[in-house]
């Protein structure tokens, strides 16, 4: 059966809400550059077996160091993409891209030393560090949006968010077995709604208590239902099972969206209370505004 072409930016595509095509394209370019790094040291592995024992060892050592640098760089790019997607985020605990830059320099130094002298090796190493830094930039070095947020609460939220993201990834993997593009898109739409709740909880960790049941019990149930549906539908192509699963996703999405909206309204109510309390304190101090509050021009 022919399938209608549908890209990620088409009307029914899978582009994530809140992300522009430019943001997605930049993230993919960065990941593409990081993956290319794994292929760069391959000539060293081939060249090593045409050298004497010392050259063999040095070339293989350079190859291993550069592969490690590529691995650290790719993880660093992933961490930065996740950091930039969130409004509230901690800086990565390990500056992987910086370590990758240093290891790239060391790997190229070893490769240069195996082919020439120390001077050329130093040039290669220095160029490797500089070019790696220009291509990938430094790691995020500061927390983002963390002012006034309790650190302990933030750690609790981070653990819950990580588990929720793991369940969402398991749903994505499982639904592929169903072989139904529309159902895959429906799951992706539900996941976007769940991630709206995750971002809301990250921005105000006080919402975690109210949202915990949704992000643990209900999301685990959605993941289990997805696995069972994918296994059944891949064997039987039962339209009733497909209809029931689609209805379940609809109910879950509606409830998650309603809960997220309630969390945001509660946050607004808390802000209104804080404003009212502050106004009452100012009035008790004998300070009453005579006009609209705002900067003087």
In N-to-C order, the SSE pattern is HHHHHHHHH
- Work out the strand percent: under 5%
Instruction: Report, as a whole number of angstroms, the end-to-end distance.
Output: 67 Å
Q: Mean pLDDT, rounded to whole units? A: 81
Question: Which structural class do you get from the secondary structure elements?
Answer: mainly alpha
Round the Cα radius of gyration to an integer and report it.
26 Å
Shape: flat
The strand count comes to 0
Largest sheet: none
Structural domains: how many: 2
Task: Explain what this protein looks like in three dimensions.
By secondary structure, the chain is mostly helical. It is 73% helix and 0% strand. It has two domains: 21-136, no CATH class; 151-284. Helix 1 (21-36) packs antiparallel against helix 3 (53-85) and helix 6 runs antiparallel to helix 7 (181-203). It is flat.
Keywords for this entry:
297 residues; mainly alpha; 9 helices; flat; disordered N terminus; ChloroindolylP_hydrolase; transmembrane; 5-bromo-4-chloroindolyl phosphate hydrolysis protein
Give me the secondary-structure topology.
Blueprint: H1 21-36, H2 42-48, H3 53-85, H4 96-115, H5 118-136, H6 151-175, H7 181-203, H8 208-236, H9 239-284
In a nutshell, what does this entry contain?
The chain has helices spanning 21-36, 42-48, 53-85, 96-115, 118-136, 151-175, 181-203, 208-236, 239-284. By secondary structure, the chain is mainly α.
